[in-house]
Task: structure prediction
Amino acid sequence: MPILIAVTLLWAFSFSLIGEFLAPDVDAYIAVLIRMLLATALLLPFLRIANTPKPLRIRLMAIGGIQIGLMYLFLYHAFLFISVAEVLLFTIFTPLYMTLLDERILNRKPLPLRWWIAAGLAVLGAALIRYQGLEAGFLTGFLLVQAANLCFALGQVAYKRLPIEDRNEQVRHYGLFFVGATIVSGLATLLFGDFSRLPTTMTHWSILIWLGLVASGVGYLAWSLASKAVNIGQLATMNNALIPAGLLVNFLIWGQDVRWGSLILGASVIFFAVYLCSPNFGKRRDLLK
Result:
């Protein structure tokens, strides 16, 4: 859990950086491709592809292509239609998607009732924090974020079910995750990219380097490694912890207004949802199994 919390704080900066500095000026396809290329370059020195079974290679590239390749293509375009705050609001459904995907598609076994309750509480907590009036024409942005949420949820659940547990082994294979994401974003850029909107300023490149090497390269590796140490319910609900973290970043760094009452109430609900899924709660509370 500490690693998931640390990565959540790391990712809290990404939404504002993308929405405020990249989306208005840099083509979304190109921005995603640069980010994936940088992350791939960071992980390639650790890759030991000769020791990676072919089925695992394919699965890792497919997971990376979906979880962050497709996900970022949808997400970056959403910033063209809705605000950073609305993007954050619309991510509240990710825990429910993860729970549903894990039970009905990948796990094919009924999950404990308390995990469903926790996912619902995580959505409620995020909604309490971020709910606000929505502007007309938000439907396109909403649908783009939901597509991104589904990609991110599917990738997380699929990676957690991969038959590799040793951390050193995961690091040796993880470069393939970004190879898959690079292939997807590269094809999309060739087909749809607007090469008249390249990054041109030091600000653009500084943000892309940060997002590619740190938020993606380090962040996704750490998140994926940590996902193996928690159950699917905890992993699902931790997705919504990004919302209060993002609000705090907006307040502390960019001076955005924060409704502190809603933040404290919503964050408390989210953290209780995470605890509800924990093994300690399961040992003490047989009632909600």
